[in-house]
Amino acid sequence: MARWNAITTARRTALTRVMQSAIRAVCLGALMCVFCAASPAQDNYREQMKGLDEQVQDIKSDVLGIAAELKRLEEKLLYPSNTQVALFVALEGGEAVRLDAVQIQIDGQTVARYIYSYQELEALKKGGVQRIFTGNVPTGAHELDVSVMGKVEGGRDYSETGHFTLQKNVEPKLVGITLAGPDLGKPAIEIGDW
User: Fold this and answer.
1) How far apart are CA 85 and CA 173, in angstroms?
2) pLDDT recorded at residue 37
3) How far apart, in whole angstroms, are the C-alpha atoms of residue 89 and residue 106?
């Protein structure tokens, strides 16, 4: 595990250096454009400024594109497809329960703890989905424990824990965790492949 963390840290450091180099190159290019575009002729000043603004916007969009591509590459390096697991949380029966916190363990090790704000809870009630965890898990069967804390209508405290078996194959695994209140006639915590 320590070796894997060292490899992961090295990959993050390498990606950070690449991204910093890309940003420096773009900024240097923008500065060169500014100095090259300066001209003593006043008639062309407005046209040059307009052209410079367009160049800066092009450079900005290039930087954003590079950053997005680096993020995708980082995710591929940190979470290879043969070990990647992503866990998502959704809320069913939005008004039945006020979700306060969720804790998730895989094989007895806590991988995610989350305390919800009012805005996040409202988004979940309206059908939103939260990616709560992305990580690496070897192929095979794993224990998944999900603990939920909150309040139900009337202000009564609510707590539920579910124990599940997660079967990880070679391809990436997407798991949806659906949370429901105690009075909906369904299990309070359900999981399924997404």
Assistant:
1) 5
2) 53
3) 15
